[in-house]
Amino acid sequence: MPSKSSRKGYAYERELLEQLTDEGFKCQRAWGSDGRSMGVEPDVDLIADDIKIQAKRRKAIPKWLELGNCDVVMFRGDHRESFAVIPVKEYVRLLSADK
Predict the structure, then answer these.
(1) Model pLDDT, residue 6
(2) Domain extent at residue 10
(3) For 77-94, what is the mean pLDDT?
(4) What is the pTM for the complete model shown?
(5) Residues 84 and 65 grouped into a single domain
(6) Which of 31, 67, 82, 88 could form a disulfide with 37 if both were Cys (CB 3.0 to 4.6 A apart)?
């Protein structure tokens, strides 16, 4: 029987799959959360159109990643590339505008 953590991760992947599919994306979930089942790298959980997604669900996220009064949080490690954190609804809206 899968662990509680595995079930939680699977449920989140299904949630994202449904949300993205409902928004018009061609979305596929990797069997066993292993991208090799779709012919891609093992850390890929979903593919929405051509976007590879790794889904992570945590009991708590670091406070510094919470948006607060902002629209986006941007961060980077020393000598690393920058990342942006935005709500999924906003991300989907931005991607949909490009279609």
Answers:
(1) 85
(2) 1-57
(3) 94
(4) 0.83
(5) yes
(6) 31
How far apart are alpha carbons 57 and 51 in whole angstroms?
19
Query: Which residue has tokens 């999924």?
Result: 88
Q: Do residues 41 and 64 share a domain?
A: no
The pLDDT tens digits for 22-81 are: 999 999 999 999 999 999 999 999 999 999 999 999 999 999 999 999 999 999 999 999
How many helices (H) does the chain have, and how many strands (E)? Answer: 2, 5
d(CA 45, CA 23): 18
Q: Which two tokens stand for residue 52?
A: 């590879």
Q: List the one residue out of 13, 4, 90, 17 whose CA is nearest residue 57.
A: 13
Q: Are residues 51 and 66 in the same domain?
A: no
**Structural domain count, the chain:** 2
